[in-house]
Amino acid sequence: MPFVEKGMTVGLFGGSFNPPHAGHALVAEIALRRLKLDQLWWIVTPGNPLKDTRHLAPLAERLVRCEALIHDPRIKITAFEAAHQIRYTADTLAMIKARNPGVHFVWIMGADNLADFHRWQRWQKIALTFPIAVIDRPGSTLAFLSSRMAKTFDYARIDETDAPMLARSKAPAWTFIHGPRSSLSSTDIRNGAAKPKG
């Protein structure tokens, strides 16, 4: 787990990153800027329980690719979930919270994950652990209106103009951040329909 000091604001950006691409880097960059974060932990997961893992590249390879893509020293590439044999985001966030008192965390995710968020293990617990920032992705802009998560926690949504306060807000709290979008997807890259760098 990366080193962090009390009082800092830290974004948590998790995924299989199979492979990582410029669209992921754009989400991280937007989160750092719009949420005014001190750090962003880019958490490379061992796998995704909701995805087919037959085409999952080895964790070490995905880590190397993430590190090659990122040049901002505030972004910390990590795969600590593997060392602790953690499968579910809810368990990851519970451990982070227990080990880092006094640090202000916010969960970062692309809007393309919002539609299926209610299928995540203990998804409501995730929303009650840390604030959530949903970053716009192509074809997913309306997800913040129609998804089950958005409807369930509609009362906890804050305006994106208040995004800099999100990390210090008490969960549940979330916002949808509009901005530049990349059409790249890991699935398309794996299937040869897109190039990783584009």
TrEMBL record:
Naturally occurring in which organism (per UniProt): Phyllobacterium zundukense
EC number: 2.7.7.18
Enzyme class, first EC level, given as a word: transferase
InterPro entries: Cyt_trans-like, NadD/NMNAT, Rossmann-like_a/b/a_fold
Protein role: Catalyzes the reversible adenylation of nicotinate mononucleotide (NaMN) to nicotinic acid adenine dinucleotide (NaAD).
Keywords from the named record: ATP-binding, NAD, Nucleotide-binding, Nucleotidyltransferase, Pyridine nucleotide biosynthesis, Transferase
The keyword NAD is annotated on this UniProt entry: yes
Biological process terms in GO annotation: NAD+ biosynthetic process
Gene, per the UniProt record: nadD
Metabolic or biological pathway, per its Swiss-Prot or TrEMBL entry: Cofactor biosynthesis; NAD(+) biosynthesis; deamido-NAD(+) from nicotinate D-ribonucleotide: step 1/1
UniProt domain Cytidyltransferase-like: residue ranges: 12-191
Family: Belongs to the NadD family.
Protein name: Probable nicotinate-nucleotide adenylyltransferase
Record SUPFAM superfamilies: Nucleotidylyl transferase
